Amino acid sequence: MNRDETSEAPSTGDSTAAPAAGVPAAGDERLVAAFADGEDQAVEAALRPKDLGEFIGQRKVREQLDLVLRAARARGSTADHVLLSGAPGLGKTTLAMIIAAEMAAPIRITSGPAIQHAGDLAAILSSLQEGEVLFLDEIHRMSRPAEEMLYMAMEDFRVDVIVGKGPGATAIPLELPPFTLVGATTRAGLLPPPLRDRFGFTAHMEFYEPPELEKVVHRSAGLLEVTTDEEGAAEIAGRSRGTPRIANRLLRRVRDYAQVKADGLVTRDTAARALAVYEVDERGLDRLDRGVLHALLKLFGGGPVGLSTLAVAVGEERDTVEEVAEPFLVREGLLARTPRGRVATPAAWAHLGLAPPRQSGSGAPGGAGQGGLFEA
Fold first, then answer.
1. Residue 137 is a catalytic residue
2. Measured between alpha carbons, how far is 71 from 91 in angstroms, rounded to an integer?
3. Residue 32's closest CA among 179, 241, 238?
4. Which domain holds residue 268?
5. pLDDT confidence band for 61 (50 / 70 / 90)
6. I want to staple 205 with a disulfide (CB 3.0 to 4.6 A). Which of 11, 90, 152, 282 is the partner?
7. Has 160 been annotated as catalytic?
8. Count of C-beta atoms within a 10 Å radius of residue 8
9. Is there a catalytic annotation at residue 28?
10. Where is the composition biased (Gly residues) (predicted)?
11. Residues contacting residue 345 through CB under 8 Å, at least 6 positions apart
């Protein structure tokens, strides 16, 4: 399971993948998680748009990428290397497949964690065909020796294969056919500048607005043969955390509820009742998100409180709270990270229907005046 958007796609060779740090284990079935499980991979393969015209959202990225691909086709050359960054579930793998389709080229899919030695990368590069697209997911997690080999491959379409060891080692240059590397990362800041600078086009994927997600829901509903009205699609879109993958997952669960408990039509009321069953509230928070907020507000008076203490309070691992729950809570303005620890915002108190405590003598909300009780 890749951290971002692993899929089963046409390939000219074996595709490899490895889990990334912070990714929930295979048994994690969080309905609003942006990571793809086995079912998601199969369904997404059917729901993915096949060209830029079908791709919804990311208008600037689509316009810029369209120019890059059209110019390459007009020159009769391979497209420049492309770097796609952004949160999981926003369409990076889909765009990589679209690039291959637009260039009428095969695509090879692998991931950074799967390339732990320079020899692993050399084996993949040496088997590429001319014009082939190599999609490297979670590229920032590739090993340093492989990364250094990639520099020369991207720039000069050549790699040096070392034969032997010690003083007798010999570097044999291996010429590569022109190819297009599409790198995807959820943490662009971890990419070293020499690697980042070798990409001819860099795009950052933004979270989707509700109207865009409504279009995603309507399109997926048509492909899944689910009947949904405007209000039903809007209800699902509003709880999808700005992520198409989550929107598609929620749509499938609402479809199940509508088939079993209703007449099969997805309306606003049906969607709301279905997502209440799956513990996804009107802002897209699930059990884990609300558990973090509940502990922060009720146990620690709104904070500040250290991450480890907060994780123990909700019965989760520290990394799970930090990498799975916190990013969305911070983006929604429900939680803030401070040097002294995690602090709840007024919006968090309002969302859970609780009254915030009076300001302490230090002027910080909640238990800020008692921050020394908890590690930062």
1. yes
2. 23
3. 241
4. 210-277
5. very high
6. 90
7. no
8. 11
9. no
10. 363-376
11. 333, 334, 335, 336
